[in-house]
Amino acid sequence: MDNNKIFDNHIHFNDYFRYKDANVKQMIEESYKHNVGAWLCASFDLTSSKKAVELSEQFEDVYVAVAIHPNEVSNYDKSVIDQLDQLANHQKVVAIGETGLDYYYTREDEQLQKEFFKDHINLAIKHNKVLQMHIRDLKDVYEAYDDVIEIIKDLNQIPKVVHCFSANKEYAQKFLDLNCYINIGGAVTFKNAKDLQEAVKVIPLDKLLLETDAPYLTPHPFRGQLNHPKYIYYTAKKVAELKNIPIEEVIKQTTLNSKKLFKID
């Protein structure tokens, strides 16, 4: 992969709800024209995990993360971990994710979320895969972040990524201290994302990644529309502005970071 093309570190080509009528081949071809070179297709349940693997077999530059999203864990028993274990053997599966803790809607299944998160961590260790973490809480509440930090504080065997980071610079530093990479998505372009924008300024470029989280979190000026992988350019542009460096430098280093993480030539 060309280091001057953007690596999208988190996208849901496998979203069978919002992208059910989408033409993935068309999206990929259009994104190539907008300087995007590769994608990590992240999963949220067993069906999407299988779908991501299928897509990776169709498209050379699509890589895969398999997992059960924390909001989905109550729909499964632990036998699903065995099925993810089998999927993780696939050569295009480079990460376990998105997994983690989500207290945004409810904390009724908090203990189950923690159990599944730990199961996913063990899966990542077993297969020597990157751990891609989803962490979400209510606005200005950071208990999910604190709980994740407590769980991973001694986890040094595998690379760790905070997907769609949305906290402040203090929490960015806490994750950097744990040797995590930090994934920045379209929310950084929002006018009210001041804490996130300040965090981006202090995250070293060699620990920073770019993502769309498409079809979600569409960046400005397309906010409100269904997100498209080609829009990642606007996230890269905002990061470059915040760090006061050329966008080419942001693209090259974040792509090098991605290739190093996922062991891609």
| Secondary structure tally, helices | 9
Q: Nearest-angstrom radius of gyration?
A: 17 Å
Order of helices and strands: EHEHEHEHEHEHEHEHH
Broad shape: globular
**Biggest β-sheet description:** 8 strands, parallel
CATH superfamily: Metal-dependent hydrolases
Q: Per CATH, which architecture?
A: Alpha-Beta Barrel
Helical percentage: 25-40%
Could you explain how this protein is built, in words?
- The chain has 265 residues and is of the alpha/beta class.
- It has one domain (6-262): TIM Barrel (Alpha-Beta Barrel).
- 40% of the residues lie in helices and 18% in strands.
- The chain has helices spanning 24-32, 46-58, 79-87, 110-127, 143-152, 169-177, 194-202, 232-243, 247-262; strands at residues 6-11, 36-42, 62-66, 93-102, 130-136, 160-163, 180-184, 208-210.
- Strands 1-2-3-4-5-6-7-8 form an 8-stranded parallel sheet, with helices on both faces.
- α6 (169-177) runs parallel beside α7 and α8 crosses α9 (247-262).
- The longest helix is centred in the middle third of the chain and has 18 residues, at 110-127.
- The protein is globular.
- The N and C termini lie close together (7 Å).
SSE order and pairing:
Blueprint: E1 6-11, H1 24-32, E2 36-42, H2 46-58, E3 62-66, H3 79-87, E4 93-102, H4 110-127, E5 130-136, H5 143-152, E6 160-163, H6 169-177, E7 180-184, H7 194-202, E8 208-210, H8 232-243, H9 247-262
Parallel strand pairs: 1-2, 2-3, 3-4, 4-5, 5-6, 6-7, 7-8
Helix pairs in contact: 2-3, 6-7, 8-9
